[in-house]
Amino acid sequence: MGDLLPWRLAWQVALYGSDGFYRRASGPAGHFTTSTHGPHAAVLAEALGRLADREGARHVVDVGAGRGELLTALHAARPDLHLTGVDVVARPERLPGGVAWLVSPGGSDLPAELRDLTDVLVVANEWLDVVPCTVATVRGGRLVEVDVDVATGAEAPGGPLDPDDEAWAAAHWPADGLPDGARVEVGLTRDRAHADLLSRVRRGTVLVVDYAHDRVTRPLPGTLTAYRDGGIVDPVPDGSCDLTAHVALDTLDTDRVVTQREALRALGVTGTVPDHSLARTDPLGYLGALSRSSAEASLLAPRGLGGFGWALTRLPRSGATGAAD
């Protein structure tokens, strides 16, 4: 076995180091599809535009913006909104001229310029799942870190958790009663990243969208997964693949968590199939409507993108409820 590092450290370098996965020219869309890619982007952009109106936002910030796919769709749908993208790469060449761009260090770290935001809707779609976290395993009833060979992905038990990670696990994903070999993905780095994002907003709304689990549904084997070229591969922290783990959205300091399906339905996304009679009178219009309804249905699918969690927080705190209201 070669060089071993705790998973959290190896993960950070693999995604955000100088030769990291997210710095590659292909970008995330070259390897997997999210709600911000392809035909989904136009539907989501329109829904987020309605959410911005509902929240009184005139500025939308996309954290983890990839190559600006969602921002491009937002610019087309809502040219009246001020738009800003945040990601680890330089401004994409094809980004519309009116869209601002900030370069982020990557992972949980945000650019210093992102601060004092007002009248803003901040959207972080599939950002927290790629904020590296401590990966631990149960040995003899206690949690120890999992170390990984950075070249092969082979794993070995590491040292004990640091006190902060141990306290998070005890509160939210306790090892008591778990069998040896069960895994825990300690969400403290995600909680802190979310808190940092909230601290950048003086007045506005923060929306985090991600794969999620809660205390009742924490998975025994964990969720650490890798993607490359459109498929799932073994997680190896060598920079060749995406590395992601589901987010404990229930531990975030947020106002409300709903599913994407619930939230988008409340924002007018229905997935309704167009009347087939339109195919005779307006074939091109029918094909366009059918493509849109397919994208909407995909975003609403309860076992797919529709099952993602939407965690929404209004600032300053006022006890308000979430996006589905």
Set out the fold topology.
Layout: E1 4-6, H1 7-16, H2 39-55, E2 59-63, H3 69-77, E3 82-87, E4 100-103, E5 117-125, E6 134-139, E7 142-149, E8 155-160, H4 163-172, E9 183-186, H5 188-199, E10 201-210, E11 225-228, E12 231-233, E13 242-244, E14 256-259, H6 260-266, H7 278-281, H8 283-300, E15 309-315
Parallel strand pairs: 2-3, 2-5, 3-4, 5-10
Antiparallel strand pairs: 1-7, 6-7, 6-9, 7-8, 10-15, 11-12, 11-13, 14-15
Helix pairs in contact: 2-3, 2-8
Rg over CA atoms: 20 Å
Q: What is the string of helix and strand elements? A: EHHEHEEEEEEHEHEEEEEHHHE
What can be said about the biggest beta sheet?
7 strands, mixed
Number of helices, counting only DSSP H or I runs of 4 residues or more? 8
Q: Could you report the average pLDDT, rounded to the nearest whole number?
A: 92
Report the CATH C-level class. Answer: Alpha Beta
Dominant shape? globular
CATH architecture grouping: 3-Layer(aba) Sandwich
Strand elements, count = 15
Describe the structure concisely for a colleague:
This protein is of the alpha/beta class.
Structural overview:
The protein is globular and about 70 Å long. By secondary structure, the chain is an alpha/beta fold. It is built from eight helices and 15 strands. It has helices at 7-16, 39-55, 69-77, 163-172, 188-199, 260-266, 278-281, 283-300, and strands at residues 4-6, 59-63, 82-87, 100-103, 117-125, 134-139, 142-149, 155-160, 183-186, 201-210, 225-228, 231-233, 242-244, 256-259, 309-315. A seven-stranded mixed β-sheet has the order 4-3-2-5-10-15-14. Strands 1, 6, 7, 8 and 9 form a five-stranded antiparallel β-sheet that branches. It has a three-stranded antiparallel β-sheet with strand order 12-11-13. The chain has one domain: Rossmann fold. α2 packs across α8 (283-300). The model is unreliable at 320-325 (pLDDT under 50). Helices cover 27% and strands 25% of the residues. β2, α3 (69-77) and β3 form a beta-alpha-beta unit. It comes from Phycicoccus avicenniae. Its EC number is 2.1.1.-. InterPro entries: NDUFAF7 (IPR003788), NDUFAF7_sf (IPR038375), SAM-dependent_MTases_sf (IPR029063). This is SAM-dependent methyltransferase. One of its GO terms (biological process) is methylation.
